[in-house]
Amino acid sequence: MIELRELTKRYGGRTAVDGLSFHVQPGAVTGFLGPNGSGKSTTMRMILGLDAPDHGQALIDGIPYAGLAWPLRSVGALLDAGAFHPGRSGRAHLAALAASNDIPASRVDRVLDIVGLSDVATRRAGTYSLGMRQRLGVAVALLGDPGVLLLDEPVNGLDPEGIRWIRDLLRGLAAEGRTVFVSSHLIAEMALTADRLVVIGRGRLLAETTVTELAAGDDNLEDAFFRLTSQVTDYRGGAAA
Amino acid sequence: MKTYGFRQAARMERIKLTSVRTTWWLAIAAVVSMVASGVGVGLGYRSHTPIATTAQILNNSLGGAILAQLLLGALGVLLVTGEYGTGMIRSTFAAVPRRRVVLAAKVAVGGSAALMIGLVASFAGYLSGQLAIRGTAIPAASLSDGAVLRAVVLTGVYLGVSALLGVGIGAIVRHSGAAIGLLFGLMFVPTIVAGLFGEDGIAIGRFVPLLMLLNSIAVLTPTPGLFSGAVSVLVVGGYAAAAVVAGGLLLRLRDA
After folding, report:
1. pLDDT for B67-120, tens place per residue?
2. Distance CA B129, CA B136 (A)
3. Do the strands A14-24 and A2-11 form a parallel or antiparallel pair, or are they unpaired?
4. Within chain B, what is the greatest distance between any pair of CA atoms?
5. ipTM of this model?
6. Domain ranges of chain A
7. Do B86 and A84 touch (CB under 8 A)?
């Protein structure tokens, strides 16, 4: 379970995340929705201890991330598709991270197999397509067979086959009783993948609900999302002339 | 083991270090630069100054260390900034949240690798200088001569320490270009400044890495006024330690 208590992050005068409190339950896929710049990625980085909150805390099964005995075996994270050295092979990238948490080398082959990168494992990761990079990121997240998964925009750059694969994978992981927390700004995708939803705007919690509940009042999830975020969207385009 | 620690982080760093081509290219370039200066110096004396002394040959044939220190310094810098530049650092800190454990592992793994490369490069520079003067009247410098062995070994150690200075600067600056630029600046600018003071410059010069390398570490007899070779290496080691400690403090304070 992931628990946020009054989590707050300021950059200079701007408050990126503002007193955010919510729970992410095990056994379900929880979608994390919000417009661009609403603080989704900052929140995820704070959960992982990469950014320090100015106030409040984020707990994984009751413990701050930095206190986990074997972080990769408790929490698997896909932060962005570029969190690797382009000159290193996918296999070496995974092997290095596995070594840091005493994860057996056989697990590296296993996750390469799960994400479908076995054939290109020895190629330098810089030569991978965007979709392959995402798959490598997913492999990192699965490496420690963790009970909690955090994925920031996992379907970015994936083809339709890849998107369906991610969807099935996440739903399968949740069905095994794991906590799965997925950020996205693709509402249609979330409608298909998530059971529960956390919606934020300008760093504040707008809704903590289920997909069914949120869509119930409006025609579809997209309209419901726009209704929720209409006051907090920072960047909006106009109609073409 | 109930939790991760230095041992795991060091294994991770060893895999990272050996799995990028840059490491191998920089190591090869460091050795080649020492060999090239050794051969070049030997051949130069052979054809132009056949009455050189042992000290002249030895001191000059280790001159490739000027370039090698920059290459190994860059290796140390890239151990840290290579991760910040690519986003790898977030994967690393997510795996090992105690950042100073990561830094300690980088110091241990990068430092010992650079020490090995430095010693190989230094001995290679010495040997190629000696081979290039074989058969001339120039007296050979034997490693059984304590002063010769000391100069060659200390040059290798100095090269290893350069990499640690690089790790520290990398952790402070976090940007490859800026960190390598700063490292090069720190190597050369104080040398020029010390030169401005003329005769008095020696009082400053004995604290300047490049001058220590060329006049006290990689030589048979240190220039009067400078520290002994071993003390000079310790002084540079102190700079590296200060940079690493400063980098370690900043790592904890800053967001990844």
Report:
1. 999 999 999 999 999 999 999 999 999 999 999 999 999 999 999 999 999 999
2. 12
3. antiparallel
4. 66
5. 0.93
6. 2-79+146-229
7. yes
Ramachandran area for residue A190 (φ above 0: left; ψ -120 to 50: alpha; else beta)? alpha
Q: Kindly provide the b/e burial profile for residues B40-70, where b requires at least 16 CB atoms within 10 angstroms of the residue's own CB.
A: bbbebbbeeeeebebbbbbbbbbbbbbbbbb
Q: Tokens 């008095």 — which residue?
A: B200
**Between vectors from CA B98 to CA B93 and to CA B104, what angle results, nearest 5°?**
95
Chain B residues in contact with A95 by the CB 8 A cut-off are 15, 19
Find chain A residues with C-beta within 8 A of B88's C-beta. 83-85
In the chain, the amino acid numbered B191 is: T
pLDDT, tens digit (0-9, with 9 covering 90-100), for A9-60: 999 889 999 999 999 999 999 999 998 889 999 999 999 999 999 999 999 9
CATH class of domain segment(s) A2-79+146-229: alpha beta
User: Chain A within 8 Å of B8 (Cβ-Cβ)?
Assistant: yes
pTM for the model: 0.93
The two three-digit tokens of residue A158, written as one number: 């994936």
The chain B residue lying nearest A87, using CA atoms, is B20
Q: Is A80 on the interface with B (CB under 8 A)?
A: yes
Residue A90 CB neighbour total at 10 angstroms: 27
Q: Are B101 and B6 in contact (CB under 8 A)?
A: yes
Element (H or E) spanning A2, and its range?
strand A2-11
